[in-house]
Amino acid sequence: MARWPRTTAALVMLASTVALWVPYLRGDQLFRYWDGPLYLYMARVLYDVPAAHPFVVYELPPMYFASHLPLYPMLIRGLSAVTGGHLPAAMMLATLATSVLAAVLFYEVLRQWDLVRSPLWTAVLFSFLPPRWLIYHSVGATEPLFFCCVFGVFIAYRKERFGWLALFMGLACLTRITGVLLVPSFGTALLARRRWAGAAAVGFSLLGLLGLFAYYRVHFGDFFAFARWNVDRMGMASIQPFAGLRQAAEGGNYRVVELYVGTYIVYALGTLALWRHREVFLYAAAFFLFLAFVLAKDTPRFFLAIAPFSLLVGYDAVLTRPACRWGLPLVAYLAYLAAWTTIPQNLVSRTVWDDLLRVIAAR
Fold this sequence. Notes:
mainly alpha
């Protein structure tokens, strides 16, 4: 299989996803896992959300959907031509296709940047670790598409294709808002190398996001609709670092504190281990610094953006040891156990799902 590393990386990712699907093939739980239904609805209406939308029982106003960026739902809508107009199937196809592509692109990044001892082995691990990623490359989620954009940025940067660099960076910004962190990390690297054309291209990558926010100003009446919900309404940010840990401790939730502290430590050490790869380090460090000021309860999901580098590359000296290779079946089993336990606990309600299906089926 090492003779065809890209094919192997793609097939392992495909197999890992299908294996996670097996217990749910006769039901709809994979489709109902948050935030898939929200993006599924957006694929049908984009931002033309009426007051009486299917998620109104969760007390979500139409402006809430400004916090969901358009590239992934647009991909779902585009792939619906392949699924005969069936949007739920198109959503799963979008996730599957981008997950497989992300695995291949990650292998290319590892190989071109000479980041690890065995690019294929690390690409295989990418299909299973961390466990939260195993979930999100198997349900309706933006992470696989975001990784495709991020890995595209690294490849374009390596080849000094600055037009492609700006394109992939702009697409990342329109997939997940944290894509904007690519701008300071790669902008700093290009300025340090005196690549003025590349630094200018990085600036142009924000035009798409600015255009989207201008549309928000017209449609929702607020240029900062995204931040207005996530920061003002949801309180997902703080000016004090690691404030979320202190809040959890003050609330007596010590188990969460210990888990989060461990997460931050693991990612901090993995990020520091990237030091000799300047651009990779700057990317991971920018995200880590940002996450120090995030109060979201699901912080481990935010860390997925740097997991391929801070975990798989940062700890490569450990992960390539024979003991770790022989331990892959156990690692995979535990990852699936965590995923299969989590998925049924985070579903949109049956009533809302049925209402959503009626809406997306309407012509």
